[in-house]
Amino acid sequence: MKFKRSSGILLHPTSLPGKYGIGSLGKEAYEFIDFLSKTKQKLWQICPLGPTGYGDSPYQCFSAFAGNPLLIDLDYLEEEGLLSKEDLILEEEFSQDYVDYGRVINFKFPLYRKAFERFNSAASDIEKGKFKAFCVENEEWLEDYTLFMALKDHFNWRSWTQWEDPIKFREEAAINKYKDDLKNDIDFHKFMQYLFFEQWTKLKDYANDKGIKVIGDIPIFVAFDSADAWSNPEIFYFDERRNPTKIAGVPPDYFSKTGQLWGNPLYDWDKLKERDYDWWIDRFKVILKQADIVRLDHFRGFEAYWAVPAGEETAINGSWEKGPGADFFNVVREKLGKLPIIAEDLGLITDEVEELRDEFEFPGMKILQFAFDTGEKNKYLPHNYDENCVVYTGTHDNDTTLGWFLNISTEVKEYVEEYLEIEASDICWGLLEAAWSSVAVMAIAPLQDILSLDSGSRMNTPGAPSGNWQWRYKKEMLNDDIINKLTDLTEKYRINNQFADVVNK
């Protein structure tokens, strides 16, 4: 798929403002889309929308298919009569600066339960019919996910490998027993997915009506403690007790001297190939309902991935193993057509990875924060771009641009100022202008860089066990000055925000 030049903002919905402790799919999300529209932006990039587990990372979810219930808008439930105004009275205000996930969960889930009970007792036949239709349409993933979540509740949130053997190994009798025993909890989790997708679909439609495309995100790997691993053990490298024999990570790199030990189970790509990659085909189908464009995280893993023996404490003692390569993307194209994919091609990238990316004409990623420390041939410097790439000032894994600049060496700072022809005080908008003025087909910046925020507003620090995914902005930050500056920058470089039709070659 070919795109025309366009620009936009990276912001995960959890970072939206709002009074209930976390961003949601409610009024503030619509106001953010209005901000994008006012400033002539046509792209809204988000992180994965799945239900997060330990560590609150959207890249470690309980399902590759489900939505995050914490994003459900409570005011909408009150408008629909599923909650009362009294239900939403706060005994103590939430922080407007960061997400306290534990407190948010303890506040929101009892309200979801109450909404579920009221839906069961008072919803119209039409509403109940819509709910039933949703369950039927999404049965293929919804049944396993909701049973998994009900079982998590039942077994006090222990990992599925610590459940009783009959249900751990998915024996038919155990599956049927728990479906009966936990029916109400299963239906509750189905109801939350119904609410999430109803709200997300309306929000995405609103964005699309304003000419704004949503860039979604597919992590290449799934969490070990997930409905995906429990219900599809045959497609992963597990031993006879369903424990991983090798796990995912990356070798030592820019972010960590000992590499990153992600801990995700690795796919048995031979098994997936035998099945025509059916699980992945289903995954693409679902994400393409949630988003208009897909960022394929850790793209290099499709060419070769870093496999670490289970039990290792760091990612150092891993080895490269071959991924499915072009065969996978040929099957995807055969079944789904040319897809609007952005390849996250950061890290240790080989010629083979670049050849795979270019064979399918996927735009790769350029990060300006990586551009200034190795001289004029650095591939992240704008004068070295070709058009088929997406330039970012930074990503969710980087420090904010201001935080990055304050922590680099004096020598690199001087080169940044020389290259961009700016003063240090203009660093954030200097990088923004470098991105927006480049030949890259898309230019994207985290909202933190639009707002010139320091390291205290960083979204994620790879390898840090806590304190991530918490940042939120305040509504008043999107003031007229920011609106005018971003609008002027976008108009100055005549960024064409309309997408071209698919080009079949």
Properties at a glance:
single chain; alpha/beta; 8-stranded parallel sheet; 4-stranded antiparallel sheet; 18 helices; globular
How is this structure best summarized?
With 505 residues, the protein is an alpha/beta fold. The chain has helices spanning 27-38, 74-79, 101-122, 125-137, 139-154, 165-168, 172-181, 183-209, 227-231, 269-274, 278-290, 325-336, 351-359, 401-407, 410-420, 427-436, 447-450, 480-492; strands spanning 6-10, 43-45, 213-218, 246-250, 260-265, 293-296, 304-309, 319-322, 341-343, 364-367, 389-392, 442-446. It contains 18 helices and 12 strands.
SSE ordering: EHEHHHHHHHEHEEHHEEEHEHEEHHHEHH
Cα radius of gyration in angstroms: 23 Å
Mean pLDDT: 95
Strand order of the largest sheet: 9-6-3-2-1-12-11-10
Topology, number of strands: 12
What form results from the Cα inertia axes? globular
Helix content, binned percent: 25-40%
Q: How is the biggest beta sheet arranged?
A: 8 strands, parallel
Which residue ranges are poorly predicted, with pLDDT under 50 across at least 5 consecutive positions?
497-505
SS content category: alpha/beta
Tell me what portion of residues adopts beta-strand conformation.
5-15%
Number of helices: 18
Q: How far apart lie the N and C ends?
A: 10 Å
